[in-house]
Amino acid sequence: MQNIKLVKESEVPNSFRNSFVRGKFDFNDKKVKETFDVDIDIPEKWNVGVIVGSSGTGKSTIANELFDIKEYKFGHKSVIEEIKTDKDVNEIIDVFNKVGFSSPPSWLKPFGVLSNGEKMRVELAQSVLDNSEIIAFDEFTSVVDRQVAKVASHCVQKYIRKNDKKFVAIACHYDILDWLEPDWILDTSTMTFYLGKMSPTTKDHKSNLKSKNVKEVIGINLGSIII
Fold this sequence. Notes:
The protein is of the alpha/beta class. The chain has helices at residues 16-24, 59-67, 79-82, 89-98, 104-107, 116-129, 146-162, 176-180; strands spanning 2-11, 31-40, 48-52, 134-137, 166-171, 184-187, 192-195, 217-219, 225-226. It has a domain at 43-70 and 132-218: Rossmann fold, CATH 3.40.50. The chain has eight helices and nine strands.
């Protein structure tokens, strides 16, 4: 069992509007504080994990503490030239296709002119081709339609498992749980950790949890958020 306890503080500058809000709502602190206190029990052997939850519940903060989310930079060359990997061009194209980026003309365009959905898929391909031990991808499928998200999720999890990599999706969409079939899940909306796959079709995620252990839920109410 691992405990993750994080405190984020933001200074509140002195200004008329800030002072108005602090006075109106009786908020006298000079700092805004967020506290995340989570117990997790990630198994030794796994390939796909998901950190999922509503906006503002600490997904990226916790993921960065655990896995160090990478940000990829792309220049003005074609994206197939910009991809950083020791794999040959055929494997790059194979990964492009697996994440739903299947347009050869778009492979020859610079990153900056692509649509938001295409950019996400290029970043996803780059993360999959990365040599990092653990790949953590923030805002997973957040800017693509759900059919593309479904195909990309299914293909990525197959690629990750086939190549025995470790991939963590950080997302606000619960539908990816059905498609990624993760080995573990941290739901930051309830600060609950699960082993196995939980259904996004019910508010009570525990009721449809498919656990690998006799105890379905590793932890309930494992943390809190204070804002």
